[in-house]
Amino acid sequence: MDSSTPTDPETACDTHREIDRDPQRESGHTPAPVARGRGRGRPVTVSREVRREQILSAAERLFSETGYADTSMADIARVCETSKRTLYELFPTKEDLFRSLVGNMETFAGLPHEIDAAASTHDALEAALDAIAHYVLDVRHVTLARLVIAESHRFPELRQRYYEQGVEHCKRWLEARIAALVACRRLAPVNENRLAGMLFGAVIGTPLIAAIADRRLPEMAEVAAHAREAVASFVATPR
């Protein structure tokens, strides 16, 4: 998972639920189609990459439904309707498969543009928090977070990687947006790291913990309302 390059503060102002539902379908993530039984005629050839994605999709669903320990490689092969030989050629062990699944999680890309000069400071921060919320509170991201936490005793390095390249990466990006607003003199001088942590915790951290624990995703309208309240409470603009 690659990290996005934070916005340059000096140039940024120059340019303008439930989790028990199917996590693949509701997140917007489009899994590779799982192979179905073949009819008569010439066998269908499936590329190695497509087969790999099919296996990862099946593993994610089974790990989420029955847990890592209670899912066997034979179970995954059966759902994919592939041979165990093919499965083991791509993933020699179940541990390798789990690591690949977590490593396959999409990286937060931020917003596709610089801070809009026409937007208010509060609107710019609310937009940043909205982008982070749609990534961190996505059903697939929460599902993988629950798996990583549940299996952290087996894969302690994956829990650290999830935090650094998921949550912490989002916080660093938010900190860069705040620094850009300060550099543009649209935000009063502030400790960017502290403010980013406060905003992230108030708007995203609490619903993320609840989603992981209770298997319920928050309504995005409710998250947006919390973002408005948090920005209004924590952020002072220059007079």
Automatic annotation (TrEMBL):
Residues annotated to bind DNA: 72-91
Domain HTH tetR-type: 49-109
Any one GO molecular-function label of the UniProt entry: transcription cis-regulatory region binding
Pfam families from the UniProt entry: TetR_C_7, TetR_N
InterPro entries: Homeodomain-like_sf, HTH-type_TetR-like_transc_reg, HTH_TetR, Tet_transcr_reg_TetR-rel_C_sf, TetR_C_Proteobacteria
Spans annotated as Disordered: 1-47
Bias (Low complexity): 30-46
UniProt keyword annotations, A-Z: DNA-binding, Transcription, Transcription regulation
UniProt biased composition (Basic and acidic residues): 13-28
Keyword DNA damage: no
Record protein name field: TetR family transcriptional regulator
